[in-house]
Write a structure and sequence with these properties.
- The protein is an all-beta fold.
- The protein is built from no helices and eleven strands.
- The chain is globular, with a radius of gyration of 13 Å.
- The protein starts with a strand and ends with a strand.
Length: 114
Amino acid sequence: QVQVVESGGGLVQPGGSLRLSCAASGSIFSINVMGWYRQAPGKEREVVALIASGGTTNYADFVKGRFTISRDNAKNTVYLQMNSLKPEDTGVYYCRYRDTHDYWGQGTQVTVSS
């Protein structure tokens, strides 16, 4: 069993920055993929960025150049640095941990508004 806990959401003005953190604990396998997804009101959940335990990253086109995903394998923690935030980035951001199983966090709200 793996527990996934996100933190770092909040309210920010357009153009601002936020940093999300996601800590995984429990039965962690050394080979895994962690990532961030988001769900805006009335929309389906979508992938934002992924990072493998080896460091390979993948980004959705709408965040390229603005968001950066990173991880600290010693802490089993993944970060999402979000810069140049837009109102359309508003939503609940979820962290996902996958090895041979699949675990999600509870989500953290990000609101971009003036």
